[in-house]
Each structure stands twice: as C-alpha cells, then as structure tokens.
Amino acid sequence: MAEIEFDHVTKRFSDGTVAVDDVVLDVADGEFMILVGPSGCGKTTALRMVAGLEKVTEGKIRIGGRVVNDLDPPERDIAMVFQNYALYPHMTVHDNIGFPLQMHRMRKTEIEHRVVEAARLLGIEELLKRKPRELSGGQRQRVAMGRAIVRHPVGFLMDEPLSNLDARLRVQMRAELVKLHQRLGVTTLYVTHDQTEAMTLGQRVAVLDRGVIQQVDVPQRLYRHPANTFVASFIGSPAMNFLDGRLEEGSVVVGDHRLGLPDEVHRRILDGAREVLVGLRPEAFEEPQFATWETHGSIPAEIEVTEQLGSETLAYFRIPALRALELGERPVELAGALAARLDPRTAAVPGSRLELAVDARQLHLFDPESRQSLLSPE
C-alpha cells in the first residue's frame, strides 16, 4: 500500500483548456478517497494522471513518496478499474483475471493461486470458465475488480465502475466495495459523479468544480458544513434551497419573514449585519404539528408538487412574492420553487396552502459575492 499525493498538479491541454487546476490532495495509505463532481470537472483527468495515461503539465504526483510524473503506467504499481470493464471477449473469466500476471511472466502455479484467491474473495469461483458475454453486468464488474486485485498493487484507481449497473445492483456493489476495502486495506482513489456513491463509499470526499477542489472532508461534514454554495448545492438530494436574505439583530430576514437565530448558529457567524445568501436543506421544513424540534419562525407555502415516498413526503412549494435562487438542480417546471422533506402524514397536496415551521439550527449563510460560507464549523 502507499500514499497518493497531488502536489500543486495542473493539467492544461493543447487548446489551452485547464482540466485540473493546482490540485493539492493527499490520499493516505489505505484510505478510500472519492473524487466527485459534475461531468467535465476534471476528476477523470486527475485519475488518469495518477495512472500515467495523461501527462502532468505542472506539479508532481507521488505514489509512496516517489515522484511518478515520468514513469510509464506499468512502473507505477497501480491497478485501474474502468467504467466499461475492458474485458477481453475471447478469454474466459479465469484468463481475464490472470492476464496481467501472464504479461509479467509469472509462474503458472502462482497465477493459478492468485486467480483462485481473487475469485473466492469476489464470490465468482463458479464463473471462471465462462466468457464475458455469458455474464451479467455485476458479474463483469467483479471480473474487472478481480483483474485489479490479482496484481496485489499498492493502490486502486476506479473510474465510475458502477455507472453501467442498474440501481439495485449499484446498491449491492457499493456494499461489496466497502467490504472489499475493509479486507484488503488498499489505498483507493475512486471517481464518480454520483453523490450517493460518494457519501456512502468514501472515508473522505474531495468535491471538484471546473478543475478546482472546493472542499475535502468526511461525508457528514461536507453535508453539515459545506464550504461554499457549490458544495452545498451538489451534496444532498433534493439540493439545498437558497434565498436572498439579510442579517438583522439576531435574526435572518427573508422577504417579509423573520427567522430567529438560535444561539448555536448565532455564535458561529463570522460577520455582522449584512446581505446574505440563506441556505436551507429540505429537512429544515416541517408542518408545526410534526416538528420534533423547536421552531424559529414559519413561512407560508403554496404546494405545487408532492412525491409520496412511504417514509416521507417530498413537497415542492413556493413562498408568495419570493423566488428561490437556482443554485442547485431543479426540474425546469419547478424553477424558483423550494423543496421540503415532510412527515408522511402531512396534509400537503398540490394546490394546498399551509404554514411550514423552520428549524433555523440547520440554516446556512453564504456571502452573496464569494459564495463562501459565513459560518464557522461547529
């Protein structure tokens, strides 16, 4: 195993496009690190530079303390798992898994031992004589993982390996990846655009936007203490709601509505009275009779759409004469609406009007210009 280090790494393509911009990131020995962000943010380019498939324009990449910028991919002792599995269709599962060892001219007895060991670890022993066309998507992904494991590398690089699987199988494979990492303890750098994967798999998560790392932290701190509006809107589904507001004498005013700030929020404010961007996650709203927390004010809600999910109801609503800011993802027809995660017993139905209590302990404040958080971490 080995640490993977990005030391002020930049990747600039020949047309001038900067895909990765001055990235500083340390992946600890044995850590499962996630790179997450929207399409085109530079996460796959960063991964390919570690693998040696893309040249570094500026900065250094170290693996186990050794600078690898000028090393060919085979010299880096890193195994990569691709989105499309990259299996050889004419080979059996056994030969696909063992192929990297054959290329290194390893003895047949050692190849056999490692292939069987990897297959047992992944639960695919009965598939060793099959060809890839005879396998399901999940089985093919396990074979691709086996081909990486069999090399006993110092690190794994995974480029959206679950994106071609259906939703149910993705959940299963996420759990299997966690267990696999617990058993092997190999340093892993995993790329995804799926925030659910990022939050459930990563010991730490690095959020990228336009080639720049926005925040690196454990999943729950990313969710509870986003450094800026990009992280706040990208992490969480439905996305955080944003409204224009201003701070006034221990309260935040949104339109004509005043929300009192509890002490635990007020003492974290880094600046005084001013205009702010107010962020509230969907779970910060509830009908008063179902609220399990002390309310700090309420707002009138005109319900547009509800989604009954059994354990909860998602409601999309509008505040009269007030429009939400579009910093997160919303369907076009719900532009300007807010999202609330309500008790399943709610009376909210499309067309209804009601008061929603607000839990101001979950309130986030951002600078309107820099979009950086105005709250210190707890």
Description:
A 6-stranded mixed sheet has the order 6-7-8-3-9-10, with helices on both faces. The chain has a 5-stranded antiparallel sheet with strand order 13-12-11-14-20. A 5-stranded antiparallel sheet has the order 15-19-16-17-18, with no helix packed on it. It has helices at residues 43-51, 93-103, 108-122, 137-149, 167-184, 195-201, 219-224, 229-234, 263-266, and strands at residues 4-12, 18-27, 32-36, 58-63, 66-67, 78-81, 155-159, 187-192, 204-209, 212-217, 241-248, 251-254, 257-260, 275-280, 285-286, 298-308, 313-318, 338-342, 353-358, 363-366. It is elongated. A hairpin with a 5-residue loop joins strand 1 (4-12) and strand 2. It is of the alpha+beta class. The protein is built from 9 helices and 20 strands. Helix 2 crosses helix 3, helix 2 runs parallel beside helix 4 and helix 3 (108-122) crosses helix 4.
Features:
378 residues, alpha+beta, Rossmann fold, OB fold (Dihydrolipoamide Acetyltransferase, E2P), 6-stranded mixed β-sheet, 24% helix
Which oligomerization state do the chains in this entry correspond to? single chain
- Order of strands across the widest beta sheet? 6-7-8-3-9-10
Terminal CA distance reads: 34 Å
Q: The biggest beta sheet, please?
A: 6 strands, mixed
What is the count of DSSP helices, taking H or I runs of 4+ residues?
Answer: 9
Structural class: alpha+beta
Any low-confidence stretches, pLDDT <50, length ≥5? none
CATH class call of the largest domain: Alpha Beta
Beta-strand percent range: 25-35%
User: Kindly state the mean pLDDT as a whole number?
Assistant: 92
CATH superfamily caption of the largest domain? P-loop containing nucleotide triphosphate hydrolases
Total number of distinct structural domains: 2
Rg over alpha carbons: 24 Å
